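quick one before i forget lol
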Amino acid sequence: MTELYQLTIHEAGELLRQRKISSVELTQAHLERIRAVEEKVKAFTLVTDDLALEQAHAADRRIANGDTLSPLTGIPLAIKDVICTKDIPTTCGSRMLENFRPPYNATVMERLNAAGIVMLGKTNMDEFSMGSSTEHSAFFNTHNPWDLERAPGGSSGGSAAAVAAGMAMGAYGSDTGGSIRQPGALCNVVGLKPTYGRVSRFGLIAFASSLDQIGPFARDARYAALLLQAIAGPDPRDATCSPQAVPNYSSTLDGNIKGMRIGVPEEYWVEGTQPDVVASARANIEHLRALGAEVEPVSLPHTRYGVAAYYIIAPAEASANLARYDGVKYGYSYQDTDDMWEAMEKTRQYGFGAEVKRRIMLGTYALSAGYYDAYYKRAEKIRSLIRQDFEQAFEKFDVLASPASPTVAFKLGEISDPYQMYLQDVFTIPANLAGICGVSIPGGFSNGLPIGFQLLGNAFAEEKILRVAHAFAQTTDYHTRWPNL
């Protein structure tokens, strides 16, 4: 018998509209699931039990009144703790914001609340989204539901783990260099990074403003389409948000990809990628060919410099964005001194963790006099070349296919070298630098651990990658499997 927490978003929505179950029952089932497994997984920084039940009651009233409903009305979801939630703690996984309660909602939260979702809580993350394992949270490590000794990926590891473990029907995270797609790959869920500007960043606490983008986690491409639909679209409060109209992402999910052109980047078969990951990706590409897609190799020559360029640009933007945390207006403030400069210095010393301080120093150095031209300016030129590579590729291809992560989930504490950790995002970073969309989907298993498969699309071509992802899921069963908790 299927438990309520194991229903798909479509199944639950249909049962809610037919009034065969209530949102309160659905929410209670997820809260019970959280109580059962959260101690093992540690996906949440905060579980909002009372608010969730209050929102569930409100959803049931909307359904009973025959109000116009969103497909997400009454659906229990989780929110990464980097998205501002009014009067509800938003910590960014940092001691710096441990007690911060935003006085406003992010645009994404306004839209989700208007849709009638149920918010189960805020999910754990690498501090200020800086990491690929969720080991850099200031509070605790999140564990991968498929093997509790392993990392779920990051920085949105809590959101990915919550969906994988059945603690939420879907979740939202943010992706600056792979922070949705990489944990999606390691946890066997769909992780979608929209085009830069497709979703408002108003109320998303910034890491690197030209790279950050909010996106969904779901068990299947169909549900990812619904979760994206609910948050996408123009926002006058975010000058970088596109005014383009939002298509109906579900309308093209017909399972048919015959004639679609899929490119396979030659540069994405890098040394050090685990053999099972390579074999899985190649098998999945052949599967798409068997479904009728036209598959050919393509060259993206400058993407090999993506990691190097990213770790100049992202820390430089972080250095500027995190300068606001000085202990004066909000967040942690060191008080045990009368000297203003010492107070500011100690606030940052004790408020930020090691990885955040490492990236601030990298970024500040890259922007400093005498080094700006040598590092930051050159990195931006590489970024332009990477964007041009993708533009040329998408003149010929609808979608590009590659591995999502070079490895399956690694053990907690296994990767101590920061550079080795940075290489976890080697396949995901170029899409952020170019501002295009990408999705990681369940693509296989290696010794019981999930393998992700990445699909990249041109700017504002989310419907194309979702179409391919849906066709793949219709003819495979990887996404239907559950971890044994």
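fyi The chain has one domain: 4-260+397-480.
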